[in-house]
Design brief:
Distance between the termini: 48 Å
Radius of gyration: 25 Å
Shape: rod-shaped
Order of helices and strands: EEHEEEHEHHHEHH
Helix content: 40-55%
Number of domains: 2
Number of strands: 7
Strand order of the largest sheet: 2-1-3
Number of helices: 7
Largest sheet: 3 strands, antiparallel
Structural class: alpha+beta
Strand content: 15-25%
Length: 142
Amino acid sequence: MEKGFYHLDRGYWQTTGEVPQRILDGYPEGTIEVSLKPSALHEWLDGAWVEVLPDPALVLAAERTVMKCSRLQGRLVLGEATCTALDAMAADPATPWAMRQTIQNAIEWSRMSQSMTELGYLLGYTDTQMDDLFRLAMTVDV
């Protein structure tokens, strides 16, 4: 039977069975037996487990760092009309050379790259729309 223990300075730990008294005697003073930790999102506060949800902004920032898709995945999600606008941008000599190359030749799109941020702006996409685009594109099997 698993058991949970908590100490103010050492935090929570869990055992996989009965703990012999000689081991218990070696636990730091102030250690208490507690119920098992319900999830990784729980913290022991004032004698009870309390769910502490992560900051949504930090969760989103972490998610964005791993948002990547192939150019084809992105284009399939964008659709014909938006891709036509992108292709027109890439053909326009007024578009900076680096952006034209990105539109035409990027193998992978990264959500947090400066080029993708700029493309989203040029297409009139909000940050939320860009996030949704990448979430969906990453699910396209090509």
